[in-house]
Design a protein that fits this description.
The protein is an alpha+beta fold and about 150 residues long. The protein contains 3 helices and 7 strands.
Length: about 150
């Protein structure tokens, strides 16, 4: 019996802010700490490896794969807080993408995290569950930050 494994988490959010400001909130290490990790070690530029520090929950490395100012930002990581500070490209990982689109009310942000089906079988379910809940929390925090 072949069961289908969920591969993607997707969230959409309309923020009452210009695309440039939303992009900074997701791609600038001095801004992202206002709603996502507590600290960022390293640069968040295409081709760079950085570490997100979530204080009590641990650290996780990211590898920035794309940065198209005001439109698109993407990185790869191992989807478990504290999973690894090692290069995520050297282990099973997921792709986190932020797409920005100008709309009449501000900026539509589409977050997609994909690649769960390629993770080791023993961590797929927990990674999906943790990140589904985590992205709900983080998107609410981003919305609050952007409204301030």
């Amino acid at each position: 019996m072949n069961t289908m494994i969920q591969d993607t988490i997707r969230r959409e959010l309309v923020l009452r802010a210009p695309k440039e400001r939303v992009f900074q909130a997701i791609a600038d290490p001095t801004k992202i700490v206002s709603w996502f990790p507590d600290r960022v070690e390293g640069k968040m530029a295409k081709g760079e490896r950085s570490v997100f520090d979530f204080s009590d929950f641990g650290k996780v490395a990211i590898h920035v794969v794309a940065s198209d100012p005001s439109d698109y930002f993407a990185y790869r990581w191992v989807p478990s807080i504290g999973a690894s500070e090692e290069d995520p490209l050297k282990q099973a990982n997921t792709l986190v993408e932020f797409r920005l689109e100008e709309v009449s009310d501000g900026t539509k942000l589409t977050l997609t995290e994909s690649g769960f089906a390629s993770l080791p079988k023993e961590v797929i379910e927990k990674s999906l569950s943790d990140n589904n809940e985590g992205w709900d929390i983080m998107m609410a925090r981003l919305e609050k930050y952007m409204a301030a």
